[in-house]
Design brief:
45% helix, globular
Length: 229
């Protein structure tokens, strides 16, 4: 189900320069609303050190910093091109106390219980080893800390014919128009179809010692989850 780091970087590096624009267009600009909702849930726990996993272009950090710019943010990703865009955005938006690191969550070198908040947006579908990643996230979070997930989740094939058609054919077309790369956006559809349902995600993460405290889905394909260590 999960892909190697080299495969994932081959998908995201080529589309990094227009990644934010395509995300907004293909979600009809709802991605901004979902990110704000996810971040607002994180803020309920008043974290001081937050890890943004698979940070991409650091959009979650930027959204979060608008609510609280005193937090110490760390963003990690395995795509060097995405991090290059992220660094430019961080400077432009004047985000304080933020560091970006090229590394995976599976092989991170953070100390135990170093963070008191973690978030990931549209990233866990791309983890090479989800079980290992969850173990690491649990390790580096302090007790009582939130782990917030915003993710595209698997939906039933017969749930919405339009949605199936949109993801399979329209999204790759949008991607090709704005990035010249259709292959990467074909992967998005495939990764969703091969991923877990909302209930499966919850059960898997609960098995890794987290407690589920919040869940909500949008259009049966976008899920926001809050887990606590």
């Amino acid at each position: 189900m999960f892909k190697s780091h080299s495969f994932v970087t081959s998908v995201f590096n080529p589309i990094s320069y227009n990644y934010d624009k395509v995300n907004s267009i293909m979600t009809l600009f709802l991605d901004k609303l979902w990110r704000r909702k996810a971040v607002s849930l994180l803020m309920n726990y008043n974290p001081q050190k937050v890890l943004d996993i698979a940070t991409g272009t650091a959009e979650m950090i930027i959204v979060s910093s608008k609510l609280n710019n005193t937090i110490e943010y760390t963003g990690i990703d395995i795509s060097e091109k995405m991090l290059e865009i992220a660094q430019k955005k961080i400077i432009k938006k004047r985000v304080k106390n933020c560091s970006l690191i090229l590394q995976s969550i599976e092989d991170n070198n953070f100390c135990d219980e170093f963070f008191n908040g973690a978030m990931v947006a549209f990233g866990i579908r791309n983890f090479e080893n989800l079980e290992k990643a969850l173990t690491q996230i649990y390790r580096i979070l302090k007790k009582g800390s939130p782990f917030v997930i915003l993710e595209a989740i698997r939906f039933k094939d017969n749930l919405n014919i339009f949605l199936e058609f949109y993801l399979k054919y329209i999204v790759p077309l949008i991607g090709k128009i704005f990035t010249g790369n259709k292959i990467s956006y074909n992967y998005f559809y495939k990764s969703i179809k091969e991923f877990y349902t909302a209930n499966e995600i919850i059960e898997l993460i609960k098995k890794n010692n987290f407690k589920i405290v919040y869940k909500k889905s949008y259009f049966n394909i976008i899920g926001i989850f809050v887990f606590v260590k």
